[in-house]
Amino acid sequence: MFRDKPSTIDDVLEAIGHFSTNVDKQFQGVNVRLDGIDVRLDGIDVRLDSIEEKISRIELDLADIKDRLEKLEIRTKEDTDAYVGDILDLKARVAAMEKQLQAIQSGQATQ
Questions:
Q1: Confidence (pTM)
Q2: Taking residues 28-50, what's their average pLDDT?
Q3: Which of 6, 52, 53, 87 is least enclosed by beta carbons within 10 angstroms?
Q4: b/e per residue 48-77 (b: at least 16 CB within 10 A)
Q5: What is the DSSP letter of 100?
Q6: Measured between alpha carbons, how far is 48 from 41 in angstroms, rounded to an integer?
Q7: What tens digit of pLDDT does each residue of 64-103 get?
Q8: What's the distance, CA 32 to chain centroid?
Q9: Which residues are CB-contacts of 15 (< 8 A; sequence separation ≥ 6)?
């Protein structure tokens, strides 16, 4: 290409044609690689969508569990409060029965 004699227009056009062909081949290689990257990115998008769906389901499940746990805590507190009242009543009844038993036993002891 670089000769001692001056280049003609045909030589310049031929050199430009070779350069253009080489550039086209390189861009085709880049395009093929970019297409491969696009395919991989599409696969990543699909996986991310799947992960987002799973996270959404987990969040819903956690919200449901939290709601059920709060209801259980309320019910447990209500049950505990009710049992405390029942236990206090039973203690009072046992104390009254013990007094009656002592009165009966002391009455039998005096006879």
A1: 0.50
A2: 94
A3: 6
A4: eeeeeeeeeeeeeeeeeeeeeeeeeeeeee
A5: H
A6: 10
A7: 999 999 999 999 888 888 889 889 999 999 999 999 999 8
A8: 36
A9: 1, 7
Rounded to the nearest 10°, the torsion over CA 81, 85, 91, 94 is -130
Concatenating the DSSP letter of every residue in 18-65 gives HHHHHHHHHHHHHHHHHHHHHHHHHHHHHHHHHHHHHHHHHHHHHHHH
Phi and psi, residue 85, nearest 5°: -60, -45
* Span 46-75, pLDDT tens digits: 999 999 999 999 999 999 999 999 999 999
In the 8-state DSSP scheme, what is residue 1? Answer: -
Judge contact between 1 and 11, C-beta under 8 A. Answer: yes
